Amino acid sequence: MADTPLQRPVTRRRLLGTAGATGLALGVTGAAAGYTAAAPSDSVTPLTEVGSRREMFHEKHQPGITTPLHARGHLIAFDLAPGAGRKEAAALLRRWSQTAARLMAGEPAPAGGHDTGIALDAGPSALTVTFGFGHSFFARTGLEKQRPAALDPLPEFSSDRLDARRSNGDLWVQIGADDALVAFHALRAVQKDAGQAARVRWQMDGFNRSPGATERPMTTRNLMGQIDGTNNPAPSDEDFEARVRVPADGDPAWMAGGSYVVFRRIRMLLDDWEQLPVREQEAVMGRRKADGAPLTGGDETTEPDLERVGKDGDLVIPLNAHARITRPDQNGGAAMVRRPFSYHDGIDDKGVPDAGLLFLCWQADPLRGFVPVQRKLDRGDALSAFIRHEASGLYAVPGGAAEGGYVGQELLEG
Fold this sequence. Notes:
Helix content: 10-25%
Number of strands: 9
Distance between the termini: 44 Å
Oligomer: single chain
């Protein structure tokens, strides 16, 4: 028997068509008059390229790690509610995984809940939802023996000015999309799904360039105007898996194929930075501002000549330049995938912007990735005078969920 309209799969775009056909569409006068006649649900205008992009949830690895940078992002951490334990955590991760799979496919939230309707007229927009576990999660669920050694708390750094209320957390969720409403829709769904099992500890919003904003694909810029992300490890690199993924025979077994993410909220002291002439900014970074090339010449991907001296006899790339200190060959090969968002949380009563970077870096072991690099930066990075680390977190992000399963299932049911 042929499908009737009620039997066809309900997608967000079909719901929009239904709303228009039943007279629920708003904005039918003035500038919106051209949209008063709703098209039949099975002849809607195709999504644009940006809206139609889809990432898959049920894969070997969780999405949002090697996915291209999103235009919009939300980070949110939860603490399990008093009395909630392993059983409640498992039920929550199952709900979250089901919701994430549907929303990433461009469908409404699961039928058992209530879809807010925020993204009814949008496609997937490359939405990704990623889940991780903090150090405290394992004691709260009686799973201390399964807590990875790599999840030990990060050491203190001299540049830290950390706010404990905006750091850490039992559970961590990263949401990214190329549309702001699609991203916010997922954020609300995740928060609503938490129900009585978990409470929000902190939440932050970020952004990057929108797809298509540049003439060609380019490495993004941060709010200091610097190209940010040059020489990131790429999945095509021979050693990518070893640097970013926990090996199949790793310990504990439930983290096989997973990764560890370090989160840092880094406030940029933009008023001080913007007073520097461009030449001085470039000396701090060790790279040209215009194109990201090293000060020793070439283009963005050219290897810098760290030994070259100028006519004045000084090193062209100063000893304390950020680009010099962060190079893997200056840190015992330490490397990580940096996948940040910029943020702007307004202007304070002194007229100073609260803006900077929601820094996220992914690695197989933070003790061999983030920690040695940050220790070296802490000892003499020229950029340190213009930034302040205000929040921090470290999370174990297991591999992807199998079809019909949920993220963390091997941990919670093993």
